[in-house]
Amino acid sequence: MQGAEAHLEPGERVLFRTGLHPVAFSGAVGMALSVALVVLLLIRHNDLPVATELQIALVGGLVALFGAVPAFLRWRRTALLLTERRLLVTAGAFRRRELALPLPAVVEQEPGLSGKLLDHGTVVMTAPDGHLSSVAHVAHAHELVERTRTQARRAPRRGMAPA
C-alpha cells in the first residue's frame, strides 16, 4: 500500500485504509485447479515413464504458479485510502491506475453474490468530470463507502475545501 501513501499531501491523515479481499485470487485458484486436473488426467490415463510424469507435474506446477502472479501483484499493489479531504486509489498489477477523488465524492458499492457474506464488493467511484472507475473485490467495501459518505458530509462543516 506504499503506492497510495506516496501521494499523501503534508499533514494529510489517513482515516481508513483497505485493499483487495482474498477473493481476488479466485481466478488464479480456478486456473490452478484446472491445470492440476489436466496433469492428473495425463499422468493417470497414460503409461508414461516416471521421469516424464515428473516433468508433466513440474510444468503444470509452473503454469499454475505463473498464472497466479498477476493476481498476487494486483492484490499487493491495490490500495484505497480515505483521508479528511479525498479518496486515494491505486490499482493494477502491471499498469497502475491512480485516482484522487476530492470529497464529496460519489462512491457506491455493489456487493455481488458473495459480498455480504464475505465482506467484499466492487467499489464504483464517480470523478467530478463524470468518469466512472471501479475496483472489484475490495475488502470491507461497505465500510469504505459508509466512511466516505460520512467524511464527505463532515468536510464542508469543518471548512475544508476539496483538494
Describe this structure in words.
- With 163 residues, this protein is an alpha+beta fold.
- The protein has two domains: 2-20 and 79-157, PH-domain like; 26-73.
- Helix content is 46%, strand content 26%.
- It is built from five helices and seven strands.
- The chain has helices spanning 2-5, 26-44, 50-77, 112-118, 141-157, and strands at residues 14-18, 79-83, 86-91, 97-102, 106-110, 120-126, 132-139.
- Strands 1-2-3-4 form a four-stranded antiparallel β-sheet.
- The longest helix is centred in the middle third of the chain and has 28 residues, at 50-77.
- The chain is elongated.
Which key features would you list for this structure?
163 residues; alpha+beta; PH-domain like; 2 domains; 4-stranded antiparallel sheet; 3-stranded antiparallel sheet; 5 helices; 7 strands; 46% helix; 26% strand; elongated; disordered C terminus
